């Protein structure tokens, strides 16, 4: 019933969010489309500004290098006595082979500038030298016109030359060479190839999908996507009249559209204040449509996000109402199974929180009652265990306090174990095992247990049965039966030579391995009827010596750390030094 109600609430809330959201998206779609055109215009403006800066910077850089080339050329010609007139006029072979250094100057300059074509020197004495063979240059044929790019200090002057039919159009940067040597006087011209200039702009500045045209101040086409138009006057463009009427109707700088051969094209026009050049960039409507498709994707993605958000909010709302109820039901089930520590978080509506508070109060009262009963049971178990080991100590007064000391040392070792190793058993388990590890001595005859001399082989075998008896007694106590293996095997050795079952290595329960170290350490530091106690340092050294033979190396390592930290200390007298008797090492 609750699930059906929650589903209906979820659907209703989802519709309430999605309905207005979709309506708003459609209402503002046209404004978003207009924003795409604004973005397109902004991009165009940024591109044109970048092209204008790059062109002006490029021309200034080439002009600077041209001035430097002119200085080098002047020094080269002036300092070369073999500079004589060659056999031909109009191209490079006029120069003698000794002028190879001058040719190298031109070639290096041309290689360093991507847009540079030919380099020409027109001497005052009528000689003409060009890097690349060009018969159109002569002192009698110099139809040069001046063109200006930029204003003020940023101005760069060009020379233009009407090319023959089919020749690439070019602009020339000039530098006049003045020298006392007539051979070094003339005009140095560096060609800026407009085809190369267009390629450079298209490669490094303008996006490939845009069309572009740049007009010089005299309205000569310097750059054009269609290279066949380069060098022509703008009036020679197809559809020029239609385009001019369109941009004359618009602002000086701005966006206008043009229908050419059935294609709707958007053109952005800008006249640069820095250079005086006019820039045109255009993009077919298909390019704008691509951006509108991205807008559609954004719209769909936004709608998807809104749906997810609506689902999340509806889910949270249903969870706010339903989760407290399910939490109460689950907590009640846990209470029925005996988990009286269970509590429910206070959440949800006022009525539900009131019920949650009542439940927590009831659970606390039941938990207190059960805890009290467990404490009584624990105290009873402690009294039973204490009665057992006190019975042993009353029977064998020489081992008085031994059980508690072994337990104390074992618990110190436990506290130094890694957390993962401590999960194998609880601290209380080890405490009970330590207190009960010698309980089997109650079954050992007094003449054997209390004998001060050397035990006979039969008596020794009888004494060794105390660990078996201890394990069997502990196994009979229902709450302690799980620790009986540790009690039974606390005299096993790591090398398998212990008793009663000659277990080896990891076969020995971890409790038994811990008790073995603790038991032996206390035995060596306690005074017995047949020997005096060792000092703590001597017993410690003996434990380390038996690592890997009698004791688990990892437990010895932990014991070593605890001893060095000062956690393990003894109070027994150690006035007589010596080793544990092999005949009476059972403790």
From TrEMBL:
Main localization, broad class: membrane
Cellular compartment(s): Cell membrane
InterPro entries: HAMP_dom (IPR003660), HD/PDEase_dom (IPR003607), HD_GYP_dom (IPR037522)
TM segment ranges: 9-29, 295-314
Keyword Hydrolase among UniProt keywords: no
Location of the HAMP domain: 319-371
Name used for this protein in its record: C-di-GMP phosphodiesterase
Species name: Brevibacillus porteri
Taxonomic placement: Bacteria, Bacillati, Bacillota, Bacilli, Bacillales
